[in-house]
Design brief:
- It is built from 8 helices and no strands.
- It is mostly helical and 172 residues long.
- Helix 5 (87-98) packs antiparallel against helix 6.
């Protein structure tokens, strides 16, 4: 939803071309660091806890994109979302935790299909929403993350998820 806003927001804020590349690179670098850190952390505490952090950070970042009024806020939003929005990392780990080895390839394929479809529809919807208001895609994205956090909080069973590595026997 918010990705189509980025070039418009960058233009509105007067981001010079060399900084456009830096903003994209900072996001990618943050994703690498965040994936490693949050993936390991979700093994130690719980997938649900890290998903809740993920949703809160993504909502905050997308609000920053929609409502931020400086280049620094836009840059910070990309760092926050890169570090903390690790939905694919966490969803893959979660599916690995709850599926049998026989069912895992199908489940992971369905996850990838759903992600690709959501990415396509989300950008299309974000572009259409932005025709009405530049902040509307950010508002809708934030609302979606609030709903996702509620669903995760109330329906994700923490007793069976997220401690597969922590519960595994460790060698000395």
């Amino acid at each position: 939803l918010v990705v189509p806003l980025l070039p418009v927001r960058m233009r509105e804020l007067g981001v010079p071309p060399e900084l456009v590349g830096l903003i994209g690179s900072v996001y990618s670098a943050s994703q690498v660091v965040g994936g490693v850190v949050l993936g390991a952390l979700s093994d130690r505490i719980s997938r649900r806890s890290i998903l809740m952090l993920n949703f809160a950070a993504a909502a905050t970042s997308y609000a920053m994109v929609g409502f931020g009024n400086s280049v620094e806020v836009l840059l910070l939003s990309r760092v926050v979302v890169g570090l903390c929005k690790q939905t694919m990392t966490l969803a893959t780990a979660l599916l690995t935790d709850i599926t049998s080895p026989e069912d895992r390839p199908l489940a992971l394929g369905q996850l990838r299909t759903a992600t690709t479809l959501a990415w396509t529809i989300g950008q299309l919807a974000g572009g259409h929403l932005a025709e009405h208001s530049q902040q509307l895609p950010a508002v809708v994205a934030v609302c979606q993350y609030v709903v996702a956090a509620g669903i995760t909080w109330f329906f994700l069973d923490t007793g069976t998820v997220g401690n597969a590595a922590a519960d595994a026997p460790r060698s000395a």
